[in-house]
Amino acid sequence: MKRESMDSFAQNLEKAAVILILVLLAVFLLGLVYAAYTQTSDLNTNDVSGEHIDFKDDNIFLNGILTAIGLCALYLFYRHCGTVPLRRMERVLLLFTFVFGAAFIASTKLEAPIYSDSYLVTFAAQRAAAGDYSQLADAYFRRFPFQLGYVLYSELFFHAVRLVLRSAPEGYRWLALQGVNLLWLLLAYHAIVEISGLLFHRPRVQKLTMLLLFVCLQPVLSVTFLYGNTPAFACGTAALWMFLLFLERGRTRYALLTALLLSLAVALKLNLLIFCVAVGGVWVIELFKKRSLRSLLCLLLAAACVLTIPKLPQRIYEKRTGLAFGEGIPMIAWMAMGFDQGYAAPGWYREYHTVAVYIMSGEDAAVTEAEAKEYLTERLQEFRRKPAGCARFFWQKLCSQWNEPSYESLWVNQVQLSFSEKGRFYDFLCGSGARRTAAFMNQVQQLILLGALLGMPGLWRRKRIRQCLLPVIVLGGLLYHLLFEAKSQYALPYFVLLVPLAAWGLSRLFHRIEHRHEGSTG
Q1: Is residue 315 a contact partner of residue 276, using CB atoms and an 8 Å limit?
Q2: pLDDT by residue (tens digit) across 311-329?
Q3: CA 3, CA 5: separation in Å to the nearest integer?
Q4: Could you tell me which residues come within 8 angstroms of residue 404 by beta carbon, excluding any fewer than 6 positions away?
Q5: How far apart are CA 21 and CA 462, in angstroms?
Q6: What distance in Å separates the CA atoms of residue 188 and residue 191, rounded to the nearest whole number?
Q7: CA–CA separation, 60 vs 15, rounded Å?
Q8: Cys staple from 209: which of 196, 249, 409, 519, with CB 3.0 to 4.6 Å?
Q9: What letter would DSSP give residue 491?
Q10: Which whole-number Å values give the CA distances from 368 to 355, 358, 376, in the listed order?
Q11: For residue 107, with 0-12 CB atoms within 10 Å meaning exposed, 13-18 middle and 19 or more buried, which class applies?
Q12: Which helix (H) or strand (E) holds 54?
């Protein structure tokens, strides 16, 4: 009797969690689909701030026609892809991505400007690889000690380059690091294809996932950005792949790999904690369904790894340098930034609540935290007094991130420096052809958002929590950046995770069309 009661509780818990996740995500997706077809958030690089979001009206009828053309093309692929070998198509995807990305890196020859975060972390790593730790004494690393994970990763890379390519010019080492980003992206794509198979068990869904990744240019154009984004995303998606394998096959090595990869992802990019929380939530519900001591111990080990391993880079550098980096700017300061009117758009970067207050307080985290709480209290009171203004603020904040089709993949290549003159391929994509590229990205974005929305009813009917792994991560990213600092670049990982959901939604649509067509002709 007790076991039956526990089983009933587990089933009810799973259903309640699935309903909550899917309802919330469907509401967001419905709003984003509406926004995608009626307006576009255009990133204006001509503004004095370097980035500014302009909200421009779209031609909904033209968008509808182009979407119809895209759906027809995808349906034709769906009808005839059964004879295409899955692994051969994946090899073509990875080869195309590699060649495209390598050509773009070589054509762009990107060099981060000295005032950028990208330059500060990679230059500190480069000097550390040469035995010079003076750059780590910069106040930047006391403010943002979480960046030390990417510094250590880059330092290890520069050590390897020194051993293999001793005579390589300095600029080529930076380009080689971008090349490693490209390899990480290939891992992420492979993991996404595998995740699609493990979630939906339909080869056609996997093939549609690959086709959508073919035309999703934003991640490939972003590999030139030297930051923790791409390697952390690759580790995060690989962790999701391992986690789903663990749930399906129950082998301990997959759980251990999940723990390791999640820890590396958080060490490289702190925001990947969203992946960890999502995995942890799904893991707990699966534990209620299938009570297993081994699974519980693996979960506890994974939690311990995620809480400890990302802190190791800071401890390593503190031991090497004798410096104390501390806790840095408190996280609540980024929430205060997220509630302020940023330079580019609502909730975007504005240094006052973080860097400015931290400096003025003599790097006192408690004072910075108190100021942030005071500002948030005032802002919430203002939102209560002006609900229409509150709704407009958060709607524009949401659209400025999720309805900016390039997710700053064009911007990061346009505003940074180059080692030499940029090539024709760069000009075709990000120079004279930037408007054309952005328009193409806009249409792909609309298809993916629409497909993901169409996939929600199918997940609702199944009501399996593991199939909500991607939705809960996307929902977590949406909510986090709706409250904290916003930037369309931050939405890119979650947008890519919508691709398997879009493939699932479109496959369900095409399956119904196919059967109706067969019924009418039969």
Answers
A1: no
A2: 999 999 999 999 999 999 9
A3: 5
A4: 40, 41, 42, 43, 53, 488, 491
A5: 13
A6: 5
A7: 36
A8: 196
A9: H
A10: 9, 6, 12
A11: buried
A12: strand 52-57
Joined tokens for residue 261:
């990869």
DSSP state for residue 331 in the 8-state scheme: T
Packed helices 387-402 and 488-521: angle between N→C axes, nearest 10 degrees: 80
Strands (E), 237-369: none
Close Cβ partners of 220 (under 8 Å, ≥ 6 residues apart): 97, 100, 101, 104, 182, 185
Please count the other Cβ atoms lying within 10 Å of the Cβ belonging to residue 19. Answer: 13
Token code pair at residue 304? 């311990």
Note whether 225 and 104 are within 8 A (CB): no
**What would the two tokens of residue 313 be?**
């880079």
Closest of 119, 126, 161, 157 to residue 140, by C-alpha: 119
For range 80-86, the mean pLDDT: 91
Residue 435 is encoded by which pair of tokens? 């408007």
Tokens 């923790």: give the residue.
228
Tell me which amino acid residue 202 is. R
For 174-209, b/e burial (b = at least 16 CB within 10 A) is: bbbbbbbbbebbbbbbbbbbbbbbbbbebbbbbbbb
DSSP notation for 350-396: -GGGTHHHHHHTTS-HHHHHHHHHHHHHHHHHHHHH-HHHHHHHHHH
Q: How far is CA 267 from CA 150, 254, 256, 264, 329, in A?
A: 7, 20, 17, 5, 17
Two tokens, residue 80? 């005839």
H-run or E-run covering 8: helix 2-38
Kindly state the average pLDDT of the residues 341-369. Answer: 92
Give the tokens for residue 417: 């420096």
H or E element that contains 111: strand 110-111
